[in-house]
Design brief:
The protein has 283 residues and is α/β, with parallel strands linked by helices. 47% of the residues lie in helices and 14% in strands.
């Protein structure tokens, strides 16, 4: 499936979601009209041009901006912009198929306007399956058709997803994203813009690439950092295995203040695994 086909498929699913929301009184008729017009425009341009549109939907059109820091990358520098997504009405089996075929462990669930409503992960699918098996074993004598129909209604992205979604901004430092993933116990973070719309996705694997920076390059960047934020403080830097050791030749209060600032900034340098500080008083 080409990127254009993926784009069109997503738009058609959004159209279906808009119609569903209108039936549930969660969307106005104007929302459905906008979705129909968007699909019609896409189909018309594809037929007229006979080629792929130069622009992509909001979740895919984002281009990385120039590097947002001299010493560290931002989420936008490493995030995936071609994101596999589902709508709230996407059924269980379709979600499972997407996870397997696209080799991802979870997908954001989008509303009609591309806001992130939640995330469905492999764990969510497995937990729902186990829960339904337990419920079926407690069958109370209701008509099987009725219970099956209820199950199919329940097993959609809206009922399966974890919500609210844990998200992050594209300008957040990589180190902050790593800490956030760890503290929230998640493997991926949808990346949203200032309007709350999806622009990408960052996973643990994306973060790991940052730690492949050679020690010599890390050391050079840390020394540049020290020259700018702590000039004259006589703080030296050495790096081994991604571990930065900062050493101050004196224990004066001004030097200690400069050391604290340098330690905080060094944590955000690409490739840094740990930061150790030494001062004369600790020797």
């Amino acid at each position: 499936m080409t990127r254009q086909d993926v784009h069109l498929d997503a738009m058609l699913r959004h159209l279906g979601a808009a119609y569903y929301d209108s039936l549930q009184n969660r969307a106005a008729p104007e929302d459905v009209k906008r979705a129909v017009a968007q699909v019609a425009t896409e189909l018309g341009e594809k037929a007229a041009n006979g080629r792929q549109r130069p622009s992509a939907p909001a979740g895919q059109q984002h281009r990385p901006s120039p590097h947002h820091g001299r010493w560290h990358s931002r989420v936008r520098d490493v995030m995936t912009t071609s994101v596999v997504t589902v709508d709230r009405i996407t059924p269980y089996k379709e979600i499972a198929r997407l996870l397997v075929e696209r080799q991802v462990s979870g997908v954001p669930v989008l509303t009609l306007d591309r806001h992130v409503a939640g995330v469905v992960s492999e764990a969510d699918l497995i937990a729902a399956r186990d829960e339904d098996v337990a419920r079926r074993r407690l069958w109370t004598g209701m008509l099987r058709y009725g219970t099956d129909r209820s199950r199919y209604t329940r097993l959609t992205a809206e009922s399966l997803m974890t919500t609210p979604a844990v998200t992050i901004h594209p300008d957040a430092p990589i180190a902050a994203a790593a800490r956030y993933m760890t503290s929230q116990h998640v493997k991926r973070l949808p990346v949203i813009d200032g309007d709350g719309k999806l622009v990408g996705l960052i996973s643990r694997r994306d973060l790991l690439g940052v730690f492949l920076v050679p020690d010599a390059e890390i050391e050079r960047q840390v020394r540049d950092l020290l020259a700018e934020v702590a000039p004259g403080a006589d703080i030296t830097a050495q790096v081994k295995g991604g571990i930065v050791t900062l050493t101050a030749a004196a224990s004066r209060a001004a030097v200690q203040d400069a050391m604290r600032g340098a330690v905080d900034l060094a944590w955000d340098v690409d490739g840094v695994v740990d930061v150790i500080e030494h001062t004369a008083s600790a020797a």
